Amino acid sequence: MDSSPKAGQMLDTAPEEVSVTFNEGVGPIFFKILDREGNEVGGPGEIRLDGTRMILPLGDRLPNGTYILTYRVISADTHPVGTTFGFSIGEPMADTSALEAGSAQASTPWTWAVALNRWLLYAAMLLAAGSALATLLLSLPAPTRARTFRVGRAAAIVAAVAYLLAIGFGGAEMVLGSFAAFFAGATWARGLASTLAASAAIGVPAMLLLAWAFSGAAGKSRTGALAVGAAAAIASFLVTGHAATAPPVWLLATVVALHLAAVAFWFGSLYPLWHSTRSTSVTEAGALMTQFSTRAVWAVGAVVVSGVVISWNQLESIGNLFGNDYGNSLVRKLVLFLIVLGIAGYNKLKLTPALERGDAAAAPRMRRTITVEYIVFLLILGAAMTLTLSTPPRANMAQAAAGAPGMSMGTEGFTTTLKSDSGYSVDIELTPARAGENMLMATVKDPSGQVLTDMADLEIVTALESAGISEIRLKGEKLPNGMWHVMIGEMLIPGEWDLEVDAFVTDFDKVEFETSVDIR
């Protein structure tokens, strides 16, 4: 018996428990079974966690009928996500769309507060840590050094407050609270039970240490405190988030730390570079720009390499860069990064040599381009913030491979089971079954019903003869548990598409399955 019903699935008998398997650890907020009137049923026991599996035991036997499974959990990046879908027992499922729409609540008024505070935290933390790194790695002129200390101290104080607000805002969003919920002890208890608390436990002391280090005389910098504070600030971002907690954790955490350190140095150096063109001679500002450019080459390289590793880990396929919220946010971030890279290149190749030659006109031009670079950097941080509000394709694919409804899975899609004359069968799930890119998951079983985990290959052939599109052949990608995954980007036209699954049981033994699917 399947104790984890999928969306729209009809079970033969009532389950003793229902469960959802995720690709990473989650914290449950609620997990319920509702009848068609919206009443909680099943005599549920206490929610249990078994690794990445969330289990709800049912004390009462559910009679035949249609039910709603709904849950809300805290994801790895502390963003609450949930799913609501229908399933049935012993009879075809009735329409549950109205109840599902009423039960699902993707966001609350606190979602925007969480997002804005997260953006502020990103900017302030990177500015504080980056000011420390700029002080340690660049020979700043005395006036610029003093102003950098002021900026760094202010940023550290703002970041410390933002770390604490993140706990309260996050807790209020998790419990679907009203404005008054922010002041409730239960709200803060929920936030403190999440990784927001661990992040703040590292981040707040780091910011206070940096604020103290920046409060000293600019000529007597507290080098050790600056280094420790910057390192701890970066470490505070490694205990939460999809990227830093994705497997293999040791690799991704290291790569994310490198990414943050390089970005912090680049971002934190912009203000002292800007200020030097106002407070020092043109040639002295040019010398500082040259010094920064030498180190920035390594920083830019680290940003690019680490960014590629992080993005590939979250996408797992170039095709996943498009057609989903996570990919769209990443594309925006990449476009903005190319813009800021172009500005930095112009500053290095054109304006820095002009400053070194003593060209006074280059100083105001440099200040203008750095100002634009600052603005684009803040937009990049906004795009990075939106990445944390959507589930990466890696998570959706892993959840699908586990045979469970994922964090972003709804009721849309096409599912069917096909059988061949030789007794083989294939379970097919195509989502979202709409014009555009679709994801197909296929599981092939032998005549005894056992999943073929060692199958040689799988190919998909799809066609829309009415539009003159014929025999688009795509190779499948093998996933754990014997499942196969194919991204179909060619279903761009609505219509009745032919779909053929060619399962190569061995290198020389192929089983064919055919069906059609209505792409809307």
Which keywords apply here?
11 helices, Immunoglobulin-like, alpha+beta, globular, 3 domains, 4-stranded mixed β-sheet, 520 residues
Largest beta sheet: strand ordering: 8-9-10-14-13
Q: So what's the overall shape? A: globular
* End-to-end gap: 33 Å
What share of the residues lie within helices? 40-55%
Structural class: alpha+beta
State the gist of this model.
46% of the residues lie in helices and 21% in strands.
Fold and architecture overview:
The chain is α+β, with helices and mostly antiparallel strands. The chain has eleven helices and 16 strands. A five-stranded antiparallel beta sheet has the order 8-9-10-14-13, with helices on one face. The chain is globular, with a radius of gyration of 27 Å.
Layout of strands and helices, then pairs:
Elements: E1 10-11, E2 17-21, E3 27-34, E4 48-50, E5 53-57, E6 65-74, E7 80-89, H1 97-103, H2 110-137, H3 142-174, H4 185-192, H5 195-214, H6 223-235, H7 249-279, H8 282-315, H9 325-356, H10 362-387, H11 393-401, E8 414-419, E9 425-431, E10 438-445, E11 457-464, E12 469-475, E13 477-478, E14 483-488, E15 495-506, E16 509-519
Parallel strand pairs: 1-7
Antiparallel strand pairs: 2-5, 3-6, 4-5, 6-7, 8-9, 9-10, 10-14, 11-12, 11-15, 13-14, 15-16
